[in-house]
Amino acid sequence: MLLLATANPHKVEEMQAIFALLLPDLRLLSLADLPGGPPPEPAETGTTFEQNATIKARAYAAASGMPCLADDSGLEIDALHGRPGVISSHYCTDGQETGMTRAQRDQANNQRVLRELEGIPPENRTARFVCTMALSLPTPKEHQWDRPPAGRQLPTPSERLSLLTPLDLSPVQSHPPGPLIIRNGSLPHWQRGGSTYFITFRVLHGELSASERDIVLDACLHWHNQRAIVHLVVVMPDHVHLILTPLPKDDAWHTLEDLMHSIKTFTSRTINASRGTTGTLWQPEYFDRLIRHADELREKWQYTLENPVRKGLVKNWFEYPWTSGGALREDRPEAGPTVLVRGTLEGRIGLPGEVPRGSHGFGYDPLFLVAPTFTQTGAELPPAEKNRLSHRAAAAGLMAERIRSLLLSDPAALGPFPA
Question: Which of 329, 349, 302 minimizes the C-alpha distance to 225?
Fold first, then answer.
């Protein structure tokens, strides 16, 4: 049983149909099915789709005591640095609710987009519809970390490490280690498949805001248990510390270089879009060190956890909100682990005169020429074809696969449910 962050029965039916192929026994509930009706709606204060989806999933999971699936979606236009983004539905009013009808908003939003893209050639009008889904899981009581009573000494980070549930390294340990590869840039990089790394990378100028640190933290955790085991992350105002182990990839390994490129590229693009700027966010190089034994891991773990304390940002490491990781995510009492996926529908915004057109869609559909042919708008696609190709269907398919994997490895992964 899974709670969807919606009171709309049609959305529940849509998701049930998508999930039925992979998860035929999974029952979906809406917020309207909860005793007492839908809980209060949380404020969507995030600057990314991932943040807003996570806010909703965690809020409704906490209110209901059930695992909750939430989504956030919108349009990203590359020439507008990712705008409209999270304010897609209210772009014409800069994200503010003004009482306009949906039809009025759609028309005004489309007019603003076409106006802001004036003079941009077709090949540079690339865009995508994005749907991010977040699944917030219940926090198992046996993994929670209760703060000690007043007067009792807190454990050191080293003691804390020994109390954490060990991460599953079996996918790494069952795969032959790779050869040692030495790559030299401004800094030396030693890589070997099956190794664990301590990594530091820094911003080029200035500092990251709180919301920007959220973006970086989410990005560092994004490939956890997919391309790497992310043991620990601490996002400081001007740098990031990571401890991770890349996972096997076919007959080789996911490389540290590819993982870092993914994290740095995504965060640079997303943060620049939120700032309305362009340019390089991170220093071109990063520091990485192979961790060779348990004592070194313990030392790097303690160094990473205590970094915010040493910098005077908090008194205790657990008070710093940009601290997370594969082990810590499952035992922080304020929230269970969150599974995030992103689905997209690629295309571009047509030129005035050729768009708007079509009657099957709403929102930006009449402006959006669907890739790869760019001959039909989203509003011209037959409804069944549009639903099959949609960003929401792509995200739902990915989430169904993730839930299926969770249940195969742990049938109780979605936790207990109220009667």
Answer: 329
- Distance, in Å, from the CA atom of 338 to the CA atom of 221, rounded to the nearest integer, reads 10
Is the domain spanning 2-138+339-409 CATH 3.80.10.10? The answer is no
Q: What angle do CA 48, 54, 58 make, to 5 degrees?
A: 155
Copy the structure tokens of residue 128. Answer: 């995508």
The domains of the chain are located at: 2-138+339-409, 147-333
Q: Are 391 and 128 in contact (CB under 8 A)?
A: yes
Q: Per the omega criterion (within 30 degrees of 0), is the bond before 416 cis? A: no
Look up residue 126 and give its two tokens: 């690339």
Residue 409 and residue 19: Cα distance in Å, rounded?
Answer: 18
Confidence of residue 339 (pLDDT cuts 50, 70, 90): confident
Residue 334 C-alpha from the chain's centroid? 18
Catalytic, 78? Answer no
Q: Which CATH class is domain 147-333?
A: alpha beta
Q: Is the pTM of this model over 0.70?
A: no
Instruction: Tell me which residue has tokens 């809406």.
Output: 30
Catalytic pick from 25, 33, 71, 72? 72
CA distance 217 to 320: 12
- List the Cα angle 260/240/338 in 5-degree steps: 75
Q: What is the pLDDT of residues 349-386, one digit of tens each?
A: 999 999 999 988 889 999 999 999 999 999 999 988 98
Q: pLDDT tens across 27-84, in order? A: 889 999 888 788 888 888 778 888 889 889 988 888 887 889 999 999 999 999 999 9
Distance CA 34, CA 86 (A): 28
User: Is 50 exceeded by the pLDDT of residue 154?
Assistant: no
One-letter identity of residue 289: R
Helix (H, G, I), strand (E, B) or coil at 153: coil
